[in-house]
Specification:
It is built from two helices and no strands. The protein is an all-alpha fold. It has one domain.
Length: 66
């Protein structure tokens, strides 16, 4: 029996990356003394751009058959 990983849509993977980085920026900003609201806004904006970047640039093209 050959087990394969489940198929995960690329949009969902992009969303997970965006949430991770937004939370990282928010918590990191709050930890170093940035106000909570500023850190939240910065995290949301950076998370949005990370989502777009990973969504557009992150997907590998399947190899072309020879």
């Amino acid at each position: 029996m050959h087990l394969r990983p489940p198929a995960v849509p690329h949009g969902f993977t992009s969303f997970l990356w965006a949430v991770f980085f937004a939370a990282f920026i928010w918590v990191g900003g709050a930890a170093v003394g940035v106000s909570s609201a500023t850190a939240l806004i910065a995290g949301l904006v950076i998370g949005f751009f990370v989502f777009l970047f990973v969504r557009i640039q992150g997907e590998d093209e399947p190899p072309r058959p020879i």
